[in-house]
Design brief:
By secondary structure, the protein is an all-alpha fold. It has helices spanning 3-35, 42-46, 49-78. Helix 1 (3-35) runs antiparallel to helix 3. It starts with a helix and ends with a helix.
Length: 79
C-alpha cells in the first residue's frame, strides 16, 4: 500500500469515527430532551432511544466518510 492510499484511509477512518461519535451523541441528547419536554409528542414515545442513537451514529458515519472523500477529491483536483 502506498503512502497516498494510507493517508486517504486514515482520513476516511478518522472522519468516520468522528461522525459516529458526534452523530450518536447528538441523537442521544435529542432523545433525552424529547422525553423531558413539557409536551411529549407521539413520535417521541414511539421511537426507541437506542434505535435513534444507532440511527444517528450511522448517519454520522456516512457524513464523515463522505466529507473525507470530498476533501480528498477536492485536493486531488487542485493539483
Amino acid at each position: 500500500m502506498d503512502r497516498k492510499t494510507r493517508r486517504l484511509l486514515l482520513l476516511v477512518v478518522s472522519c468516520s469515527v468522528s461522525g459516529v461519535i458526534l452523530g450518536g451523541t447528538s441523537s442521544w441528547a435529542e432523545s433525552k430532551m424529547c422525553l423531558r419536554a413539557d409536551t411529549i409528542s407521539s413520535e417521541c414515545l414511539i421511537q426507541n432511544p437506542a434505535q435513534r442513537t444507532i440511527q444517528g451514529m450511522s448517519t454520522g458515519l456516512l457524513a464523515g466518510a463522505g466529507a473525507a472523500f470530498g476533501a480528498a477529491w477536492n485536493l486531488h483536483h487542485q493539483d
